[in-house]
Amino acid sequence: MALSESKAYAVVIGGGFYGVNIALYLAQQNKGQVVLLEKENGLLTRASYHNQARVHNGYHYPRSFTTAYRSRINLPRFAADWPDAVKTDFTKLYAIARNNSKVTAKQFTRFCKEIGATIEPSEDYSHLFNNRLIEQAFLVEEYAFDASVLAAWAQEQLKLAGIELLLSASVTEITNKQPGLVVSYGYKESIQKISAEKVFNCTYSGLNQFGGDFIGTHTKLKHEVTEMALMQMPDNLKNIGITVMDGPFFSMMPFPARGLHTLSHVRYTPHFNWLDEKGVNPYEKLALYEKQTRVDRMVRDVQRYIPDVAKAEYRDSLFEVKTILVKNETDDGRPILFEEYPDLPGLYSVLGGKIDNIYDVLERLNNEV
Ligand SMILES: Cc1cc2nc3c(=O)[nH]c(=O)nc-3n(C[C@H](O)[C@H](O)[C@H](O)COP(=O)(O)OP(=O)(O)OC[C@H]3O[C@@H](n4cnc5c(N)ncnc54)[C@H](O)[C@@H]3O)c2cc1C
């Protein structure tokens, strides 16, 4: 194996939406070369693509006021910054189930008013629902994003900013070599090393899977192998996104990157979960998992609430590891993780629980880096 060493001002590990935006931020600072290392052979191919594509506007988080409120602030910014990637031209409905829901229609309305989110009871779509199971449907304001448009944007912007992008470059170690850090990665069958003043660990599910001197994040993580079914909806559901709240229910959202809908269900989308542990690599765990779709069970339950879903055609499934902070397991909150390490100056770990949290990360970078 060949071994070569190089130098940069900053190394960003992970070419998802977070890594790309952080690399662009660092390049704008003009302090030296920025290098972005990504283990896959493309940008935004993992969680930044394999997700529900919802630009949240708060509705999803009746149990976490802060996340709901931050979503309200971030959605208009996201829509203004990535207009070509944001789909707004579909009907957005949230519905409250009569049984087993953690909120009633009245409580949900009050909560939306508190966070200042548009909500309008709607009878126009009640024919879509089984009204014995649905208390009330509401028209709301929420969007979907197209991850393939974001990926094309990322590729172009990195080039314009002069950032060195290495794909199929899998980082294995972060070691302390003050003043700075050394990042080791496998690339084209050789081990390479880069030393840098700043290293950003933006690897989402892989945050704690490095050898060397990094002992891991302080914040405890939990991983879930998730499945979202990709469906071709019948004509009367094609231009609609529906989420039934708040409990063991489901969402069907446009997935613009494929012109289909995702169907996800609180009971069937998570296949299994485990607490984060160094040495148990979530990506490998997913790769080894025999991915048997649960779409039949999803459709069977969803059609009780929305009978026409029975006419949807299954196309494919997106399987991905979803990583959350253990502390938010019960309230569904999606704050950012942004950590520094006194014994490894210059190293930062970043995880954004949802795509529009990028603004919260950029704010921290502005204040602290
Ligand atoms: C099932 C699911 C549904 C979701 N739904 C939504 C939603 O509707 N709306 C929303 O806003 N958010 C949603 N999210 C969350 C959202 O997808 C994430 O917040 C966001 O994509 C995180 O971006 P990222 O760049 O941190 O992660 P990623 O896009 O996963 O990027 C991390 C990158 O690091 C790379 N990497 C990992 N280890 C290494 C290594 N050792 N060396 C080099 N590269 C490495 C990976 O290959 C990957 O490309 C969902 C997530 C999941 C999984």
Helix content percent band? 10-25%
Percent strand: 35-45%
Overall geometric form: elongated
Gap from first CA to last CA:
36 Å
Query: Averaged pLDDT, please?
Result: 95
The whole-angstrom Rg is: 21 Å
Query: How would you classify the helix and strand content by structural class?
Result: alpha/beta
Number of continuous helical runs: 7
| Number of DSSP-assigned strands | 21
Distinct small molecules: flavin-adenine dinucleotide
Low-confidence stretches: none
User: Helices and strands, in N-to-C order?
Assistant: EHEEHEEHEEEHEEEEEEEEEEHHEEEH
Largest sheet: 9 strands, mixed
Description:
With 369 residues, the chain is α/β, with parallel strands linked by helices. The protein is 22% helix and 35% strand. It contains seven helices and 21 strands. The strands form three sheets. Strands 1, 2, 9, 10, 11, 12, 13, 20 and 21 form a nine-stranded mixed sheet that branches. Strands 5, 6, 7, 14, 15, 16, 17, 18 and 19 form a nine-stranded mixed sheet that branches. A three-stranded antiparallel sheet has the order 3-8-4. The longest helix has 17 residues, at 65-81. The chain is elongated and about 65 Å long. The protein starts with a strand and ends with a helix. Bound molecules: flavin-adenine dinucleotide. Flavin-adenine dinucleotide binds next to helix 1, strand 10, strand 14, strand 19 and strand 21.
